[in-house]
Amino acid sequence: MTLEIKDLHIRFGNKEVLKGINLKLEKGNVLAVIGESGAGKTTLGLTIAGLVGRVVSSAGKDVDNGSAQGKIIFGGKNILELAEKEFLKLRWNKISIVFQNVANAFNPVLSIIEQVAEPVLVQGVRKKSIAFACAEKMLDRTGFPLRKQNYYPHQLSGGEIQRALIAMALVNNPEVLILDEPTASLDPIMRREVLDLLKQISADCAVLLITHDLAAASVLSQRTAVLYQGRILEEGDTQSVLNTPRHPYMRALLRSYPNMTTTKDMQTIKFSENDSLDMGCPFVNRCTQAIDICRNEVPKLIEFSVYYHANRDKQNTCSSNDMKSSVNNMVKEVKEVKEVKEVKEVKEVKEVKEVKEVKVIKVIKESEARNLNYCKYIDTGDDLKKDFEGVRDKIYFGRENLASIQKTKNIDLTKELLDGEIFGNTVSRVACHRGGIVPYLVVHRIGKKYGNEFELKDISFIVFEGETVALVGQSGSGKSTIAKIIMGIEKAENGNILLEEKLVKEKRDKNFYKRIQMVFQNPFDAVSSRMTVMQILVEPLLIQKIGDDKYREEKARKVLEEVGLPSEDIFLNRFPHKMSGGELQRLAIARSLVLNPKLLIADEPTSALDALVQARVLKLLMTLQEQRGLGMLLITHDIALARKVADRIIVLKDGKMVEQGTSSQVITAPVHPYTRKLIEAAAEMQKN
Amino acid sequence: MKLKLMKTLLLKKESLLGIVLGIILIFIFIFLPLFFDYKPTETSLNIFQPPSKDCFLGTNDVGQDIMSRLIAGGRNSLLIATGVSILSTLLSLILGSVAALRGGMADRIIMRLVDVLLVIPNLVIIILISAYLTPSAIMEIFIIALLIWTGGARAIRAQVLSLKERSHVYAAFSFGADRWYILYRHILPELIPLAMTLILQGARRAIFMEAGLAFIGVVDPNVVSWGSMISHALQFYYLEVWKWWLLPVGGALALTMLSFSLVSYVMEEIVLPQSGGKDIDA
Q1: Chain B interface mutation, best of A499, A509, A527, A530, highest count of B Cβ atoms under 10 Å
Q2: Residue among B3, B167, B184, B185 with most chain A CBs within 10 A, to mutate
Q3: How do residues B95-145 score in pLDDT, each as one tens digit?
Q4: What does the buried/exposed string (b/e) look like for A449-472 if buried means 16 or more CB atoms within 10 Å of the residue's CB?
Q5: What is the Cα–Cα distance from A472 to A634, expressed in whole angstroms?
Q6: ipTM exceeds 0.90
Q7: Disulfide check for A563: which of A114, A118, A131, A586 has CB 3.0–4.6 Å away?
Q8: What is the Cα–Cα distance from A157 to A431, expressed in whole angstroms?
């Protein structure tokens, strides 16, 4: 039997704790609700258990326990409207709950077995012995040591109490089980055991897992919902939510969570002082990609199938002329592909040609360029796949996980495009006006020739908003050329670049450079020897005509402090030849930050620095990432460094991408032999 | 860099001598006329006078004061030197940097023009043009400048080609700067030492060329010039006084050339160490 929550609002006095929750619990499925403390997770659990949002009589008095709006449908009835008497038949019988606070959940003056048997007695079994037998059986099943069944709660360990709590919840074989932080206070070994137990149990009933433990959600649940200030921000298949989060908040949660499979963690996001307003997105004050609409309108949950096949609102920037032309190009390309096919299957295609053409255009108009790019992007990987036929399942393209790569095997892209459904095997929902984390920079099939040889071939990658991508490879692998092509310093023979989902023209305008800045490789060359520190720092502002002299000077001092250089007048009037390489490099970084770019292309930004200064500079950049969503394309030959700083690593060899994946994947399970070589050559403190 | 350049110039013996000499000569040509009777074109009855109290270097066949004429010739030389050097250096700067920055067709056209002008001997053309036009000083400036900018343009082009690959130029570009800003703020300042060398060199060559043209008499005869004074003196070699007409003028010409040469020689050594102090277009 399923339990369905429809537009649930819970209000305590003036404070609305839950604001329109829509969820569905199905038998045999675990739905994890994750979020930080105060998000309303427990309230949701308690509401389903009938403990919140209704008038409950306690000790002879009626206590107002918050008011509820909306529906919770269980067994065909809205349980929010049930009288307390009727609800008693459900609670601990059909719907049971494992409470959060392990230590205080039991009555200290009753033995464990008595308390576990209590729900059985309450639900109408008169004979104590039967109830006790049931309880004993359930305690045994949960792995509770039976010899301790007559102990009192204070005599037991946390893990044992947790098991007893679970036994109590399960003793009547409920259909809906609510687990409120079941692993919060357990040590890792015990936690593991409890998780295993919960996994067994969850097969029989519908489970709502309330937790801030992402690993628990990953182990137990099939679907995950992210709750923030009483609203659901993202909901979807657990693996896709945890591996490829779409909402910035979910990504922040993941980044802050220490675990064994990510290399860049303990990152936080900015904290806002003022509470969220009733209007606007609840996350707006902490979001680094907020636009005007985010402040005025609450985003609705939008469905999307994984891999950017979303149907976002039409109002956003994608409808511009740039987009149209790029879309038109794509239509052309798709047609070309089709024509090749035509030669093979002349008859068949001719029959459906007209219908298909209409469809192509329709599909392309509906989906956005980034979706298409993404599709083609996967297509780009085909070369790679051929190279590593045996192990290709392990190569990650962009953000795809294993399952999807398997799905794309032998895929006919044209056909898939025509069918509209591309790679979406699951449907997720995200509440964001910008459709989730924005793919800030899309580099699509860039190629560059020197003479007849390709120096770069089919370079495609995405840098998402607030994300660090490392380009790793030997010198001469074309890393810097990629950077120069993006900046418009060099021209590419083919390929497209999209910034903020808009096609970048060959001649960049000033606005382009406000959003994207570059730190050059050689610090001695990167600043003019004829300018003072001050002149160097205000140059970008002068060129962009931002602010007056006073503002510029303040800004210059501010960025100097940010990179840890002195900001006194004497330093501001110094010429570069009196400075060390480290100072110059930091000066160059400071200069690139003056314009507040959203994306920084850093070409070996720390190669001239000693480790201490390097750590400082990179910490600074990571802080900027937290504070204002600075994306970074880090070009380096140091894979050890990339591992610590980057979310994803792209390995480049002779102008080709040979491997791409999240940092942890690339480091722990490198597929390409060249990547392995790089990792072996990386800095190590211990000799094996 | 600029300070370093001045310092080195003052420290080196050759350049110091050149600078001192130059200052003295300029002082003579500009300020000396204020202190005595300066009348370069005025004729008198005192002809063929040897040096005396009244006229330091004597008078010529029509009674003109040689000293006054020497200074007038120097002024003329300086005027032409200044005009030619500035004009030709400007041409070199503009055409050289345009060729380097624009590249492609502009580069090809400009550099082929340079090749053509370098192949044809300048002096021959100048003599031909001058003989046809008998130019005034201003016109002379233009003619000479239009023919001697080529070597400088080559040097500037090479320098700009290397400058524009520097990271700080790319950096300025990546702040959204346009071509003019980059030229003005990042490339021109780096060209100043080279441009100074070109100015000195142009001046030296202009003085020499002007004297040569006047010597063979293809310029405006009303202009008082060292070259015409020398050729005039040579016509009276049978008289005793002719050496007073010739030697001071020849000496002044030699000293002026020496002064410019010494300074530009050292400057080239600093600015273009690879040239070993040779003439850029030699």
Answers
A1: A530
A2: B167
A3: 999 999 888 899 999 999 999 998 988 888 888 888 888 888 888 899 999
A4: eeeeebbbbbbbbbbbbbbbbbbb
A5: 8
A6: no
A7: A586
A8: 41
Extract the tokens encoding A252: 């922040």
Interfacial residues of B (vs A; Cβ cutoff 8 Å)? 1, 166-168, 170-177, 181, 185-186, 189-190
Lookup result for tokens 């074309």: A478
- Residue A349 pLDDT: 41
Tokens for A105, please give them: 């959940």
CA torsion sign for A72, A78, A79, A80 is: positive
Beta strands in chain B (DSSP E): none
Burial environment of residue B237 by CB neighbours within 10 A (0 to 12, 13 to 18, 19 or more):
exposed
- Of residues B3 and B14, more confidently modeled: B14
Count of Cβ atoms closer than 10 Å to residue A323 Cβ:
18
Residue carrying structure tokens 């619990």: A25
Rounded CA gap, A195 and A512, in Å? 50
Task: Please indicate if any CB of chain B lies within 8 Å of the CB of A505.
Answer: no
Considering CB atoms only, which of A518, A521, A530 is closest to B174? A518
State the pLDDT confidence band at B5, using cuts at 50, 70 and 90.
confident
Place of tokens 């570069």: A576
B174 touches A489 (CB < 8 A):
yes
A543–B175 C-beta distance less than 8 A: yes
* Closest Cα in chain A to B179: A543
Q: Tens of pLDDT along B138-183?
A: 888 999 999 899 989 999 999 999 998 888 999 999 998 888 888 8
Contact B172 A512 (CB under 8 A): no
Q: Which of A510, A521, A526 lies at the smallest CB-CB distance from B176?
A: A510
For A637, how many CA atoms within 13 A lie in the half-sphere containing its CB?
A: 12
**Per-10-residue mean pLDDT for chain A, 688 residues long?**
88 85 89 89 89 68 75 88 83 88 82 90 83 90 89 88 89 90 85 88 89 90 91 86 84 85 76 66 85 84 52 26 43 51 45 39 33 33 33 29 36 34 56 80 82 81 88 88 91 82 80 91 86 91 90 91 87 88 88 92 86 85 86 91 89 84 81 84 76
> Strand A206-211 vs strand A30-34: parallel, antiparallel, or unpaired?
parallel
Amino acid letter, A6: K
Q: Cα(A17)–Cα(A229) distance, rounded to whole angstroms?
A: 7
* CA pseudo-torsion sign A161, A162, A164, A169: positive
Please give the Cα distance from A648 to B27 (Å, whole number): 72
Chain B residue with CA closest to A523: the answer is B167
Q: Are A228 and A39 in contact (CB under 8 A)?
A: yes
pTM: 0.74
Q: What DSSP character marks residue A107?
A: -
Across the interface, whether the CB atoms of B172 and A539 are under 8 A apart is answered yes
Residues of chain B contacting residue A540, judged by C-beta atoms under 8 Å apart: 175-176
* Min distance A658 CA to chain B CA atoms (Å): 29
The answer to whether A251 and A245 are in contact (CB under 8 A) is yes
B268 or B129: which leads in pLDDT: B129
**Residues A599, A462: Cα–Cα separation, whole Å:** 12
Contact yes or no for B176 and A517 at CB 8 A: no
Closest alpha carbon to B122 in B99, B95, B96, B149: B149
A512 touches chain B (CB under 8 A): yes
CB contact (8 A) between residue A509 and residue B176: yes
User: CA–CA separation, B112 vs B108, rounded Å?
Assistant: 6
Looking at residue A182, what DSSP letter applies?
A: T
